[in-house]
Write a structure and sequence with these properties.
- With 136 residues, this protein is α+β, with helices and mostly antiparallel strands.
- 60% of the residues lie in helices and 18% in strands.
- The chain contains five helices and six strands.
- The strands form two sheets. A four-stranded antiparallel sheet has the order 1-4-5-6, covered by helices on one side. A two-stranded antiparallel ribbon has the order 2-3.
- A hairpin with a 5-residue loop joins strand 5 and strand 6.
- The protein is elongated.
- The two termini are 19 Å apart.
């Protein structure tokens, strides 16, 4: 789905008025065209952004439109990405610190087991974080 801001600016390259801000949820791209008509694109690639955008499109598309109209969509998605990544990393570390199997694998230097268990713990942390941040 594509959200375009109400405010428009003249694009010399397109030789027409274009939306100042555009959000394409399918490609996870935010495009900003400044007063001089120069467009810059920012692509988000993390799954958390894709899941959040899909969730918002289905449940609250007006909130995305408001962020686009206010010119805050890029900052919003950048902040969300940072919060999710930090929360997943923090939660993963807590799970690793409290998992006896992970601790035992690390203690004996079994990198295969530590890596496998660490991946499972990270997936568990992502599930917890996504439920509270991404799908909210």
């Amino acid at each position: 789905m594509i959200f375009k801001s109400e405010k428009q600016v003249y694009s010399k390259m397109a030789d027409k008025l274009v939306a100042e801000w555009t959000l394409d949820t399918d490609t996870q791209t935010v495009t900003h065209t400044n007063e001089n008509g120069v467009a810059t694109k920012h692509c988000f690639w993390r799954d958390c952004i894709r899941y959040h955008l899909n969730y918002r499109v289905e449940n609250a598309p007006e909130s995305l439109q408001k962020l686009v109209n206010e010119g805050k969509i890029q900052a919003y998605l950048e902040d969300l990405e940072i919060r999710v990544v930090d929360a997943v990393n923090e939660q993963t570390q807590k799970l690793m610190d409290n998992d006896k199997d992970y601790q035992a694998a690390v203690a004996v230097g079994n990198l295969n087991a530590a890596g496998s268990i660490g991946n499972v713990l990270q997936a568990r942390a992502e599930k917890m974080v996504y439920q509270t941040i991404v799908y909210a």
